[in-house]
Specification:
Blueprint lengths: L3 E8 L4 E10 L2 E11 L6 H19 L3 E5 L7 H20 L4 E4 L1 H8 L7 H11 L8 H15 L3 H12 L4
Parallel strand pairs: 1-4, 4-5
Antiparallel strand pairs: 1-2, 2-3
């Protein structure tokens, strides 16, 4: 039986954090699940970060990924927006690291190029290609589509070490 690897892609954001889980089985990508964690904009930022953390912990518990891929920060429209994005990214990185999962980070242009073939693709192109690459995937938001694109980027980037480690872990082997 070929080794498989389950990847959680995370598109961090304070208002909406997208997540998507796929599995690599041999050379196939299989959609597992996706969704969006929406924080309550009326709450203080600290409480919103707790909501994002709780949502991501739930995703980890439900889908047991072997690896996590997160979008790197990009230039935001202003300093306040950049800070909020950075705080949401920190939660995603912290949750994955505390779970002992390997974390990869990818620049937005690399994700787009990996999924669409062009580094400046728009949201509609990304969503369309995600649905083509992952039959049965119907992301409900652009955030979920982006998260699946991040997971696809990680899958396309190799991940041989993680596949081997996951297979050994599942087989009960000791490293």
């Amino acid at each position: 039986m070929p080794a498989s690897l389950r990847i959680l892609g995370i598109d961090p954001g304070l208002g909406a954090t997208g997540w998507g889980v796929l599995e690599i089985a041999g050379s196939r990508l299989i959609h597992i699940a996706n969704g969006t964690i929406v924080s309550n904009a009326r709450l203080a930022i600290a409480r919103r970060l707790v909501e994002i953390e709780a949502g991501l912990l739930n995703v980890l518990a439900c889908h047991a990924p072997d690896a996590v891929a997160v979008e790197q920060a990009f230039v935001a429209r202003d300093a306040a927006a950049a800070l909020k994005l950075g705080q949401a990214r920190a939660i995603a990185l912290l949750v994955a690291a505390r779970a002992g999962l390997p974390v990869a980070e990818y620049a937005p242009n690399r994700i787009k190029k990996s999924v669409v073939g062009a580094g400046h693709a728009d949201k509609k192109q990304i969503a369309l290609m995600v649905e083509m690459l992952l039959p049965g995937a119907r992301p409900g938001t652009e955030h979920a589509a982006d998260a699946l694109a991040i997971a696809i980027c990680h899958a396309h980037s190799g991940g041989a070490d993680e596949r081997i480690a996951a297979a050994l872990s599942r087989a009960g082997a000791v490293r």
